[in-house]
Design goal:
The structure is a single chain. With 222 residues, this protein is an alpha/beta fold. The protein has 2 domains: 15-130, no CATH class; 137-186 and 210-221, no CATH class. The protein is built from 9 helices and 9 strands. The protein has helices at residues 77-86, 98-101, 107-115, 117-122, 137-151, 156-164, 168-179, 189-193, 210-221, and strands at 19-25, 36-43, 51-54, 63-68, 71-76, 93-96, 126-130, 199-203, 206-209. The chain has a 9-stranded mixed sheet with strand order 5-4-2-1-6-3-7-8-9. Helix 5 packs across helix 7 (168-179). The radius of gyration is 19 Å and the shape is globular.
Length: 222
Amino acid sequence: MASDSPIFCYHKLDHESREFRLLRLLPSIYFDTEIHCELFKSSLDNCPSYEAISYVWGDANITVPIRLHDTTRSVTTNLGLALRYLRLAEQERIIWVHALCIHQEDNLEKNHQVRQMGKIYAGSEQVIVWLGEEDDARQAFQSLTELIAQAKKMSFEAFRILWEGADVTTTKLACDALFARSWWTRMWTLQEVIHDRPVTAYAGSFQINFDDLYETFLSYKE
């Protein structure tokens, strides 16, 4: 990271106009290329289509660099991974992400933006639940997708029986790890995903409909 890199300056938001910022995640065909993004102001009353990310910040002391406009910015490793996996190959992706779209050192702005976060998530085209790196999620997602497909053809009680009979060594152990991830214990989880917007859960490059995943999570925890 260059020590003489300029510092990004946030421009004030007009709270009366319900302004907020969106992040333009620039494309790359290469997964390992440096993340490059730009911020721009918009209004909840008139904004482009965007997606909102729900994620766990992670350890603030463990960071990776990204390029924000012409400056170098540090973000947590978990957010860096999310941006890398969500970046498209040939077109920009417009997203809202708490850590970058809110000026974290401006308490007045931060308090105002936090109060309207429910509207920001509800106004998005889609909410993305970022669960982290792939790790053991491949087995869990594949097994859950099969179980969910079967569950849609049967009663809830029949699904419970199917779930209880799932292969311990393949499905249940993988789901133990998936459902133990810290996102499930976050304070703001319900505000970010309970509305009429579509919600998709990602773990690395794998994705699954969140409503299906959440219903399975509730059955799993009972």
